[in-house]
Amino acid sequence: MSSQEVEVLVVGAGQAGVAMSEHLSERGIPHIVLERHRIAERWRSMRWDSLVANGPAWHDRFPGLEFTDIEAGSFPSKEQVADYFVAYAEKIGAPIRCGVEVKSVRRNIGAPGFHVETSDGEYNARYVVAATGPFQRPVIPAVVPETAQLMQMHSSSYRNPGQLPQGAVLVVGAGSSGVQIAAEIQRSGRQVYLSVGPHDRPPRNYRGRDFCWWLGVLGKWDASTPALGAEHVTIAVSGADGGHTVDFRALAENGIKLVGRTMEFQDGTMRFADDLGTNIANGDAHYLELLDEADAYVERNGLDLPEEPEARLLRPDPESLTNPIRELDLAAAGITSIVWATGFAVDYSWLQVDAFDAKGRPLQQRGVSTEPGVYFLGLPWQSRRGSSFIWGVWHDAKYVADQITIQRSYLTHNEQDALVASGAV
Ligand SMILES: Cc1cc2nc3c(=O)[nH]c(=O)nc-3n(C[C@H](O)[C@H](O)[C@H](O)COP(=O)(O)OP(=O)(O)OC[C@H]3O[C@@H](n4cnc5c(N)ncnc54)[C@H](O)[C@@H]3O)c2cc1C
User: 195: Cβ below 6 Å to ligand 1?
Assistant: First the structure.
């Protein structure tokens, strides 16, 4: 079977693939984007029903288009986010082919570029951009065996409380997903236990500005990538119910029982680390530091933003914090299900090139991989904190498009023409 020739093949049409297409088109670089499902599929079908964006509509978007169906300060629903990227792809005329899965990418031998096998034929691509997302494979730590009499699901499979059997629920993980899911289940009338690890919890709004604004002006979206092996601390934020600061004490006041990091399960009993107090205290310290930095920014720039001293008042410690539960007999506590909001890993099994370390992690710098001609986009911390978010991926895509342009210009370089142009001959 003959292969279709393509200059740049982009794999995945989430926000990363759409951004990549825009920047390639701007530079006149021929390309196609292959998407196995639909544009922005993960926003449509791999997230819970009530999810709204964590950032307001004015922030969580690309520069070239505003949300039209929602106020700038509101939080778009997951469907509105997906619709936004479909509209964006249409606006820029992105050459996206949906329903085509990339099965393998291999380096050509004795010829430039890559041989690509897909569910719809073969391609020969000079460059490949892997834009398949930061969150591909759900990770559930091996703590509770499948034989335990409990329903276990990952946050990416959670849709709504109606999915869960009657009874109390343990939610493991207190990043943005875990806290939002725990609050929703608790509101549905269940007893919820929330296992809280290390986290940052920026104020949703301070002195009249959203945290997205503060992270922007304080340069924190642009914070550079931590060294390999440095501990990643999840950010707990929420746009649910119009947006509010994640406050673990308030969750406890509403009836959620907080516990430390989930450690081990034996004979029906779950054990939790003795770290709840430390995790909450570190989260508070980060929160208060951000208020200090925001105040200093206001003063330094002479801004007229209303003071908000009440933002510094912390609620009283709940019982689960003063007297933490270290062991829980799940059956006795009535727990019948566990939602693991414990994050994701990447899966590049289709990308069979020399661009990974022994653990399968991409070897790349700002998206430029160790395999010449292969690029990544949308990785967590690819170039900065914002890289895996809507705001950041657009800027990373611009950089990757520049790198492809530079490589193409070397290939079209003609030594003799260059000498003539410079007047040397
Ligand atoms: C619960 C949750 C909430 C989030 N909320 C926000 C938010 O509010 N604001 C924000 O900025 N960020 C948010 N993020 C982070 C980030 O914006 C999203 O994860 C986003 O989906 C990443 O976009 P992406 O294009 O990089 O990857 P994805 O959206 O994962 O898109 C990758 C695409 O590649 C396709 N694909 C994969 N493999 C192949 C293959 N072999 N062949 C063809 N196609 C393939 C997939 O079908 C998918 O459509 C959130 C993440 C999660 C998990």
Answer: no
